[in-house]
Automatic annotation (TrEMBL):
GO terms for biological process: asparagine metabolic process; glutamine metabolic process; oxaloacetate metabolic process. Residues 86-335 form the CN hydrolase domain. This is CN hydrolase domain-containing protein. InterPro entries: C-N_Hydrolase, C-N_Hydrolase_sf, Nit1/2_C-N_Hydrolase. Pfam families: CN_hydrolase. It comes from Aquilegia coerulea (Rocky mountain columbine). GO terms for molecular function: omega-amidase activity.
Amino acid sequence: MRAGVALSRLSSSTFQFGNLNQFPTIYKPNLLQLSSFSRSSNPSNINLSKKKLFHTVSSAMASSFMPEQARVPPAIELPTPPVTKFKIALCQLSVTEDKERNISHARKAIEEAAEKGVDLVLLPEIWNSPYSNDSFPIYAEDIDSGGDASPSTAMLSEVAHRLQITIVGGSIPERSGGRLYNTCCVFGKDGKLRAKHRKLHLFDIDIPGQITFKESKTLTAGENPTIVDTDVGRIGIGICYDIRFEELAMLYAARGAHLLCYPGAFNMTTGPLHWELLQRARATDNQLFVATCSPARDPRGGYVAWGHSTLVGPFGQVLATTEHEETTIIAEIDYSQIDLRRTNLPLGKQKRGDLYQLVDIHRLKSQ
């Protein structure tokens, strides 16, 4: 692990950002700082001759545009993952009002996936509870206390250790300090909690005549983007609505993520339009793998999920997907594809560091 990668850690292999309130006001409005890096007003400097233009786009272009300065601090070199190839399972589960049933059902799906040789299991968003503001307070668990106070995560920990697999545990409602969160827990093969990600961007939308939902009525937004080293590589975690914010994925990529996992429950309005589009965009822009997992669709439920859990490769290609019924997708991730695609299409060397910067404030502060 490099020195200065992060300010705070949940464990020795988990990086998290601190509270933005501790930094100067100038940093708070946005993490992505677009700078014009002033040009001379001399028209001759703006209207380049064709000869100079062709020279600009020559092999020396990348160095003259200072691509290393597009990231401040510079992007972390992609770490060598513990494995090159492995199988991932996306468990698209049906969810009921019976919490005990939901937990045992998830356990069975994980066990069946492990029997097929998977090393990583991804569960859906809010898999132990109906997705509703009325349900969140009732089904919420005290994750930090563990044991009987959090039967859902206790099950994930036990199964991960027993089956020797990594689990990105979708998300469940969490109760902490008098507040509720939409929280994803990551467990290693040893059954230990490696990371806990609280949904950063709450799902508050209002499309008249189609869907209105406001998570902020009951939930509190998290404050720490989360990237974690696991037995299957470095993973950046987001939950559903988090996928819409490309800056988060860019920061994860700059910190050396191999894979982004987004448990999510897109709806019947935005799902057909945006679900696959956003996954492919995040994967293509950052040239890494993106995995998503949705609950199965229940037309009788108050909130109807789109389904279509999916794995996308670093060239934006859909490697595996499904429809809306309950199922488990098993697919292979080959990390050598990341290096291949970044060689084929060297976006990292072509960034215009003279025009824009992605400022990783917390890494910068730690140095």
